[in-house]
Each structure stands twice: as structure tokens, then as C-alpha cells.
Sequence to fold (159 residues):
Amino acid sequence: MFGFFGKYVDIVSPFTGNTIDLSEVPDEVFSQRMAGDGIAVIPTGNVAVAPADGEINLIFQGGHSFSMKTPDKLEITVHIGLDTIIMNGEGFEVLVQQGTKVTKGTPIVRFDPDTITDAGLSLISPVLITNPDSVRSMSSNTGIDAEAGKSVILKVKLK
Fold:
């Protein structure tokens, strides 16, 4: 009635790797939270999975990024590496189609970390909530060794 009891949504890591605060990302679009708020992961694996249950509503051309919407209307964008749009899909294999309903942990994109780093690009991968107007509060779990599809990296309280 007064909004005291917001619903919580757990966002799991889309990557196996180490989590860092978004402010540590060496790209001010992400570190200044211009594209959304969230966390970043430095992947040690080669697959990006769905960080929540929902529907893939956008796969960016080349497969370097994807967005999804949860049943609670939370919008999540996962960006694989920094500036990887310039790779034009090289080193990325999209595993699902736009519009696919997924569950937490469903593989979305396979990528080649060596291809990204050989191009001189960073593997740091932002995980963003892109509709902050629906969020009351959010806490991030930084400094952990996350397991793709299992480790909770963001706890979001909805309005």
C-alpha cells in the first residue's frame, strides 16, 4: 500500500570471473553509469549466460552485447568486453535468437577471449540495469569469484 514491501530480484553473473565495481571500469560511459547502473565482471570463461529468467529482447549486431527483460519488467544489458563493437562479430557466436525466452544460466553468446585481447581490447564486461526508474535500491556483490548462472552479483529491490 505504501511501497514498503518491494520485491527483490537476484541477478546472477552472466560470466565465470571476478566482479568489480562499475566505477572501476575504464570507460566513463559505464563507470559514470550513463548507460545504466550495475556491476562488471572480468570473465575467465568464454560463455555469457542469461543473468535472470526472462526474454532476450535485443542481441546487438555482432553479438558483443545483449539485452533482456525479466517477468518483473527489469531490463538488463550485458556487454561482453569494452569497445568490442569494433570487432564486427569476430570472436562472437550468438547461441539464441532475439525473442527467445530463457532461464537463468541459459548460454546466450560464446566468445573467444583471446580474439578480444589480441585486438587490444579489455575483457571487462558491464552488467547493467537499464531501467533505473523501476528500481528502489540495488546492492552489488563485488570482489568475488563468480560462477556463471549461479553466483548472485546484484540484488535489486523493485519499486
Remarks:
- DSSP finds two helices and 14 strands in the chain.
- The helical segments are 28-31, 113-118.
